[in-house]
Amino acid sequence: MTGGSEGSNGAAGTPGPEPAISPRSARPPPRAGAVGGGAAESAEDYISQKAPGVPPSPRRTTFPRRPRRRRVRGRLHFPEGPGWAAGSVRGRSLGFGAGGSPVSAMPKAKGKTRRQKFGYNVNRKRLNRAARRKTAPRIACSHIRHAWDHGKSVRQNLAEMGLAMDPNKAVPIRKKQAQVTAMEVDGPVERRKALIRKPYVLNDLEAEASLPEKKGNTLSRDLIDYVRYMVENHGEDYKAMARDEKNYYQDTPKQIKSKINVYKRFYPEEFQAFVTSLQQSKMECQ
Question: Residue 193 has what pLDDT?
Fold first, then answer.
């Protein structure tokens, strides 16, 4: 047996070149006494120890890629692929059947998938003008609002109406006496007056300000009749008013007094005329 093996080796001649090993797959041989029984003589032996029966590959081992999803008419299409049992659509897990089709999928909104089209029949200029008018602040004063020109600035509009935009500049604060005397010595400073093109606005505002103020607060007719009855029967005796049978709300003497004072404050002339009429009627009775 030994001789035959030696003869076969001699017939083959010189040993052939060793198979090429890529630098990625080549690793340093393990140390003596490592797992696998002794140190490997070459990188090929080391690879065979790690994966017996698998020839060394010059390329790096790659894993099968997950099949890509493609959209067909707004739905997700999952190609059939072995080894895939679950997937995800925007973070939501899906289960797959035997053929690779999704078992349950969330439908997408109709407006999201529809392609946006440009409206050629819409008047953009009119829409922008309406949006500007809608977002613009509404002027509370009717006189200023009707005379307002939207093509001019705020300062120009107020100057044409005879109004001031900044009251600190229109009516400045008086300075110290020393500075005033120095200005008088230098001479009066001429200021440029703005041309008032809409004086009717200022006249309407002055006329409206001169009108007497309307009283928004009024008293109910029941309260007026209640106060008149108490004053007519008891005068200023508030304790007797509290014991009266018509004191339905069981008001205390102080509460009745406060109601009478409210009536005096709201209608002073009417209360005074009522008191004088009571005095005249008492004098006639006597």
Answer: 65
